[in-house]
Prior knowledge:
Layout: H1 2-20, H2 26-31, H3 36-47, H4 52-65, E1 70-72, E2 75-79, E3 86-90, E4 107-112, H5 117-125, E5 132-135, E6 140-145, H6 148-162, H7 168-183
Helix pairs in contact: 5-6, 6-7
Amino acid sequence: MKISRMFGLSAALAACAVLSGCVASLDSDKGVSSNPAERAAFAADVVSQWSQTASLAARRLMERYGPPDEVRRDRLVWRGNAPWEITTVSDAWPQLDQATDADLGVVAQTVRLSLTPFQAAAAVAAAADERVTYDPVHHELTARSDREEVNILRLNLAVDAAQSRLSVAEARQQYARDLMLEASGKVLPDMQVLRFTPDR
């Protein structure tokens, strides 16, 4: 009788865990599948349940770079999608006190770049909203926004500040001006391509 009860309890716990997502199901296998078509289909299913901002960002990146290398319920990851070392798009929803068009920073894109401590400090400070970070151990410079174009702009200006072509204040002012120009319909080269060559 005791063995029967233990078996029943184990089965119930296992079923509960699978339903609640506590135990990896076939989803996690699809997420790292070697079959691009399978990853693409799984990614499309995943992002359909995300916020509008995150879903749109994910679809744009899939159109540009193809199926992600890794698919999880809360994020998609591309590795080595030049010029980026890593690109991650994560699901996020606006907070109650945020405007509906607020930048949630769902797209994080990283380049490898060696910077001195002084250069790294200037690069990070160039982004007033702390959306640019530097990892000195792995020499990785990362920008976050809701669009790749904005990440490119952030990093171009961060490197300008790091290399003393612009002061931190000038970089921040240029960022605000460029966003206004883009909103007016202008196409800005600084938002299309990195002006520096990442390390490899």
